[in-house]
Design goal:
Elements lengths: L3 H18 L4 H14 L11 H4 L3 H6 L12 H15 L7 E2 L2 E2 H21 L30 H25 L1
Antiparallel strand pairs: 1-2
Helix pairs in contact: 1-2, 1-6, 1-7, 2-6, 5-6
Length: about 180
Amino acid sequence: MALRKTHIATSEAILLGCAIAIHQPLPAIVTEAVGVWLGCQLPDIDQKQTRVNKRGGLFTRILTLWGHRTWSHSIWIPIMLLICALYLSSLSFSHGISVNGTYVMEYLYYSIVLGYFLHEVEDSFSIEGIRWFYPLGDTRIVRKKGLLKYKVGGTKEQIILIVATLLIITEIIWIGYLYI
């Protein structure tokens, strides 16, 4: 796994860039940032040393039995989350809070899915790779070469973190310029 801060920074940088590009309203951007923040941490729920595992109780302890990058890093969890998001967004009472005419809960549902999926994509660039179709296939899909291939905690990951952080700062300034 990439370090937690790298997942958060990279996922948020991608989200903010896309939100600016498609001219999302400010309440949606803030809500999506919260959702991606939550979602990009969830795949590491199966590792004992992560915050999300320590705070998850018995359920998360059970998930550690399968090992890291098995169920939590397969395509099936984002698909299930997407189905839940589709269902919740179709319910009239679940649209929730309206901020300046923007119903933000729907943005939250989908951005959690996006954060989860971005975490998996980011981990697929690591040396360890991920098992996209676990348990149907136990083969790790690992990038053999490439500029973005990194080792957890290594120099390339630190560079990715710095670039993502600089992008976030630039994007926040841009959002401030657009909306404030």
